[in-house]
Design brief:
There is one protein chain. The chain contains 17 helices and 18 strands. It has helices at 2-5, 20-31, 60-68, 72-91, 110-125, 138-144, 166-179, 229-236, 304-317, 373-388, 413-421, 425-435, 439-450, 462-471, 477-484, 492-510, 514-533, and strands at residues 11-16, 36-40, 55-56, 96-105, 134-137, 155-164, 183-186, 188-196, 199-207, 212-223, 244-254, 264-267, 276-281, 284-288, 292-293, 327-338, 353-357, 363-367. The protein is an alpha+beta fold and 534 residues long. Strands 3, 4, 5, 6, 11, 12, 13, 14, 15 and 16 form a ten-stranded mixed beta sheet that branches. Strands 1, 2, 7, 8, 9, 10, 17 and 18 form an eight-stranded mixed beta sheet that branches. Helices cover 39% and strands 23% of the residues. Bound molecules: flavin-adenine dinucleotide. Flavin-adenine dinucleotide binds next to helix 2, strand 2, strand 8 and strand 16.
Length: 534
């Protein structure tokens, strides 16, 4: 905050929005040697970027569309995303991994259709392909996914995509941008843009924690605010025509017993012609998603009819019953889709991204997918360089740069952690994955009196709360439970049980007054209540 406020010369770039798109832009620009400020009005990933299906993918569904409509641009989109998939798996090995997925088939006629489609997916990936897709007979399909309904099962197609922890990945991108010299701040909102001689020259910022406002000047401003894109564009041009619409997608989290530990399921056909994924994720089972028209709001909720829709489809493919009472958590996210006024339904909109330059030079980057955040960032920064007349000393380095935590990470690192710090096996394995090369720092705090588990039987430690307040910009129990530990998005009851202790640890670390602590608790309780009641 001191660096933002005491600005002497203008920044080269101000990035508005701290989802995957914005943090990606900040990192790209920082690696080019530009001076960068990024502000996020809530927490990093508070928006869509923590509410995805957690797939690093080209999108088998988009491929199907490309084939059906002979759409070359959709093919290119899938191919580019598959290239990005390989990059993301490489630069953040601790937060991502390849995941095998089975598409169960109950009709022989479907086999050639899905097998050819997924072979095409492999082929489009080229050298970036993870592993070859293949047909598996009913026996192997059941071995890999024992909960499948056996009756009538002919077999399935096994293919591979990437899976990741979206909120922690976004945090890693923000932390890497900061390490590369960018100034990044959460809880700082852009309330207005500064215009000078008809050009955007910065923004009026509000520090939401301190409660005051100040101005920041920059040679170029990038608007990366996802669903809120048009609101920021109207700060430049009150008459700007909307370019983003949103559609909502919900996810339901079930117990771990509903999925095997290392294989996902692709349900190939829903009533409304979509696909549904069911996958192991962070020790639970994640199911999603839907696609419905929605209003733009900060905390969209999963509604009962949407939850019922998801459970109904899972029930059709499962040998075991799945009831509403099996749902541990349910949440919703908004897809920022670049508008096409000719499209009737949002599922038909392109997942491609658009870089737009407004009449006063505001650079807007919108659309795309999580998987393509890096490519989107390259395009947005290229445009900002032109608009701002910037001269970056170096080219972008994001294709090879490991994200924070990637260095020093080893998939086998849990054993060493366990031995060195005397941790339980589940804790060591969890810390290794969540923090990568920084796991020893968290483990060090744990052996320093903060080794208590936040919940019995769960690997989360008190040390993580202190670590997140010191090194990961966590400023509230909501930041902690939703986006650092992910607990509130996995198990709402467990999150409620951990809340008091998380608040206590944060209060000690951040020097809160009793009133501040109470307000923080109430905020988290309210959000949990909304999530459960919706
Ligand atoms: C249900 C669902 C499932 C998905 N699944 C996948 C998937 O499996 N794989 C994949 O690749 N993609 C997936 N996506 C797409 C992906 O999640 C999004 O494309 C991506 O997260 C968008 O990121 P963003 O940064 O553009 O938006 P956001 O993450 O919403 O970030 C925008 C940020 O801007 C901030 N902001 C807004 N206004 C201001 C202001 N005035 N000042 C400061 N900050 C501001 C907001 O607080 C917010 O944090 C999915 C999307 C949805 C909805």
């Amino acid at each position: 905050m001191a660096r933002l406020r005491s600005q002497e010369a203008p920044f080269d770039l101000l990035v508005v929005g701290g989802g995957a798109t914005g943090t990606g832009v900040a990192l790209d620009a920082a690696t080019r040697g530009l001076s960068v400020a990024l502000v996020e009005r809530s927490d990093f990933s508070a928006g869509t970027s923590s509410r995805s299906t957690k797939l690093i993918h080209g999108g088998v569904r988009y491929l199907e569309k490309a084939v059906k409509h002979f759409d070359r641009s959709q093919f290119n989109l899938v191919r580019d995303a598959l290239h990005e998939r390989a990059i993301l798996l490489r630069i953040a090995p601790h937060l991502s991994h390849p995941l095998p997925l089975v598409t169960p088939l109950y009709n022989w006629l479907e086999v050639p259709y899905y097998l050819t489609g997924l072979k095409l997916y492999d082929w489009l990936a080229g050298r970036s392909n993870l592993r070859t897709s293949r047909f598996v007979d009913a026996k192997e399909a059941l071995q890999r996914f024992p909960m499948l309904r056996q009756q009538g099962l002919r077999g399935g197609v096994l293919y591979y995509d990437g899976q990741f922890d979206d909120a922690r990945m976004n945090l890693a991108i923000a932390l890497t941008a900061a390490r590369e010299g960018a100034v990044v701040a959460n809880y700082v909102a852009v309330d207005d843009l500064l215009l000078e001689n008809g050009r955007v020259r910065g923004a009026k910022l509000r520090d939401r924690l301190a409660g005051d406002s100040f101005e920041l000047t920059a040679r170029a401003v990038v608007n990366a605010t996802g669903p809120f894109t048009d609101g920021v564009r109207r700060m430049e041009d009150p008459g700007a025509r909307p370019m983003v619409t949103v559609s909502s997608g919900i996810h339901v989290v079930l117990d771990r017993r509903f999925s095997p530990p290392a294989t996902g399921l692709l349900i190939p056909q829903t009533d409304d012609g979509r696909v549904l994924f069911l996958m192991p994720w962070l020790g639970h089972t994640l199911v999603g998603t839907t696609d419905n028209e929605a209003a733009i709001e900060e905390n969209p909720r999963a509604h009962e009819d949407e939850i019922a829709y998801v459970l109904r489809h899972v029930g059709r493919y499962f040998a075991v019953p799945v009831a509403r009472s099996d749902v541990r958590a349910a949440w919703s996210g908004l897809r920022p889709l670049v508008s096409d006024p000719h499209s009737a339904d949002t599922a038909g909109l392109s997942r491609d991204h658009v870089v737009n330059v407004g009449p006063a030079g505001l650079v807007t980057i919108a659309g795309g997918k999580w998987t393509t955040y890096r490519r989107m960032a390259v395009d947005a920064v290229n445009e900002a360089v032109k608009v701002g007349g910037l001269e970056p000393p170096r080219p972008s380095a994001t294709e090879r740069l490991l994200l924070v935590g990637g260095e020093g990470f080893s998939a086998q690192g849990a054993g060493a952690l366990q031995e060195r710090f005397g941790l339980d096996a589940d804790v060591a394995s969890y810390l290794n994955r969540a923090y990568g090369g920084f796991a020893p720092e968290v483990a060090g705090l744990a052996t320093d009196g903060l080794g208590e588990r936040l919940l019995d039987g769960e690997p989360y430690l008190a040390a993580e709360v202190v670590y997140a307040a010191r090194h990961e910009y966590a400023r509230s129990a909501v930041d902690m439970l939703w986006r650092r530990l992910r607990l509130a998005m996995l198990d709402e009851v467990a999150a409620a049980a951990a809340l008091e202790r998380v608040g206590e640890l944060l209060a000690g670390e951040l020097g809160w007054t009793p009133e501040q602590r109470q307000a923080d608790l109430e905020e988290a309780r309210e959000l949990l209540g909304q999530q459960q009641a919706a």
